[in-house]
Amino acid sequence: MSSKSQLSYKARASNHPNVLAKKLFEIAEAKQTNVTVSADVTTTKELLDLADRLGPYIAVIKTHIDILSDFSDETITGLNALAAKHNFLIFEDRKFIDIGNTVQKQYHNGTLRISEWAHIINCSILPGEGIVEALAQTASASDFPYGPERGLLILAEMTSKGSLATGEYTKKSIDYARKYKNFVTGFVSTRALGDEQADSSLATEDEDFVVFTTGVNLSSKGDKLGQQYQTPQSAIGRGADFIIAGRGIYAAPDPVDAAKQYQKQGWEAYLARIGGQ
Ligand code: S5P
C-alpha cells in the first residue's frame, strides 16, 4: 500500500500539488464520504434524478454519457447545477484509448463536449505515452478555461475476468502518471499502486496518487459477463481512496438507502485504515 494511504483525507488535501486531488480529498472530508456512484442509467431524467437524490451521500458521480438515449444541453446544465448544489465532482468514464490526435478531439469537441463539464476523465495507456501527453496538453492549453479543475485517472487495472491490464501495462501506467503528475490525479485500479516502483527515478517523495476502485458491491460477487466484485472494506483495505459502486446502489430497491450504507461502510473502513487520526 502507498505510504500516503495511512494519512487522513484532510492531511492529504492540505498541500496536495494536484488541484483536483486536493479538491477530492476536501470533498471527502467535508461530506464524510468516499463513495462514487456509477450512474449507468440511460435517460437524462433518471441520471439527474439519481444525482439529486444521492448527491448528499457521494463525493463523485461517474457517468457513461454515451449510453444516454437523450443527451442534450439540459443533461450538462442539470448535472453541473447538481454538482454545485451537492458539492460533488463529475467523472466521465469515457476510457479514451486512441492516438493523441484523436483523443484530443474526443475530449474537447464533438457532440459530448466532455472537457466542458467532466472534472475527471480516464484513459487506457494501451496506445502508449502519447495519449496521456495529448490529454494533458488539451487541459493545459492557454485557451482552455477549466484547466486546473480537470484531472485524469489512468486505467491501470480492470476488474473483469481475464483482464490484460496487468504486469508491464500496470507498471507503465505508474510511469506515465509520474511523468504527467500535474494532470494525472491517480488511477482506476484494484489497489494502491505507488509501491511498485515501476521506474523509481520518476518517483518523488511527495507523490500521492488517488486510487479509485470499481467493482464494489455489498451483495454480489459478480455478474454473468465477467464482472468481479469486492466489498468496500476489502477495496479500502487494499488502498482504494474512493470506492465506485454502480448496480449495488442504483439498482437497489432503495438507492438512497443503499448509498447511505456504502457511505457508512466506506467511511468506517477508511477510519480503520488511518487508525482513528
Ligand atoms: O475495471 C473496471 C473499470 C471500470 S471504470 N471495471 C468496471 O466495472 N468499471 C466501470 O465501473 C464500469 O464501466 C461500470 O460503469 C462500473 C461498474 O458498475 P457495477 O454496476 O458493476 O458496479
Short key terms for the protein model shown above:
8 strands, about 15% strand, 8-stranded parallel barrel, TIM Barrel, alpha/beta, binds 6-sulfanyluridine-5'-phosphate, globular
CATH class: Alpha Beta
Ligand list: 6-sulfanyluridine-5'-phosphate
Under the CATH scheme, the architecture is Alpha-Beta Barrel
The arrangement of helices and strands along the chain is HHEHEHEHHEHEHEEHEHH
Q: Find the CATH topology.
A: TIM Barrel
> Alpha-carbon distance between the termini?
18 Å
Low-confidence stretches: none
Q: How large is the share of residues in beta strands?
A: 5-15%
**What's the average pLDDT?**
95
Query: What would you call the shape?
Result: globular
The biggest beta sheet is recorded as: 8 strands, parallel, barrel
CATH homologous superfamily? Aldolase class I
Radius of gyration: 17 Å
* Major beta sheet, strand line-up: 1-2-3-4-5-6-7-8
Q: Helical proportion? A: 40-55%
Number of separate strands: 8
Number of helices: 11
Helix/strand-derived category reads alpha/beta
Number of domains in the coordinates? Answer: 1
